[in-house]
Amino acid sequence: EDVGSQMDRVVTEEEWLQKWEAGNIGFHKEQGHPLLRKYLDVLSNGRSGLRIFFPLCGKAVEMKWLADMGHSVVGVEVSEQALKDFFAEHNLPYSEETVPEISGAKILQSTSGNISLYCCSIYDLSSSIVGKFDGVWDRGALVAVNPCDRQRYVSLMITLMEKNSSYLLVTVSYDPNKHKGPPFYVPESEIKSLFG
């Protein structure tokens, strides 16, 4: 399959912010993702109290599910509106603070302390700021990252993972010549080479 048609496509942060402002968020799943329910035991592997990372989290309802199961959730999202909507839609009280290490970034944290959402570019994060994770739920993140940034994205994710962590990745399959993305088409061969 020819993915060349997408390789140069770049979606700016501004465009993502506009999608949230306009409510053009067809990628958001109100009911959560059935694949997370299905593979939850793969992610947790019988362990409780895990730290789970949601890259480009939007207002994913799964963050609430996992927190309710006793895990601690960290997300990152460029749209502050998405994060505020998340707390509002689940009636969760939260506090807001600046992140000293990242200029202009904020962290919105549930009062219960088990959900911490960073409002900034994912590329501003590092393990020295957010720590490492036992699990990653990548639903619509790798496929939303600009194709030219994929290697950078995956390299960052690898630095955020504990030794025995699980990475659940949801991708999309379609003919890349008929759709310009996002979501972008990432062939399985590329996933294997990116993550090694």
TrEMBL record:
Catalytic activity: S-adenosyl-L-methionine + a thiopurine = S-adenosyl-L-homocysteine + a thiopurine S-methylether
Assigned GO CC terms: cytoplasm
Keywords on record: Cytoplasm, Methyltransferase, S-adenosyl-L-methionine, Transferase
InterPro entries: SAM-dependent_MTases_sf, Thiopurine_S-MeTrfase, TPMT
Pfam families: TPMT
EC number: 2.1.1.67
Residues given in the record as S-adenosyl-L-methionine binding sites: 16-27, 56, 77, 121-122, 139
A GO biological process held by the record: methylation
Cellular compartment(s): Cytoplasm
GO molecular function, one term: thiopurine S-methyltransferase activity
Family statement drawn from the similarity comment of this UniProt entry: Belongs to the class I-like SAM-binding methyltransferase superfamily. TPMT family.
Name of the protein in its database record: thiopurine S-methyltransferase
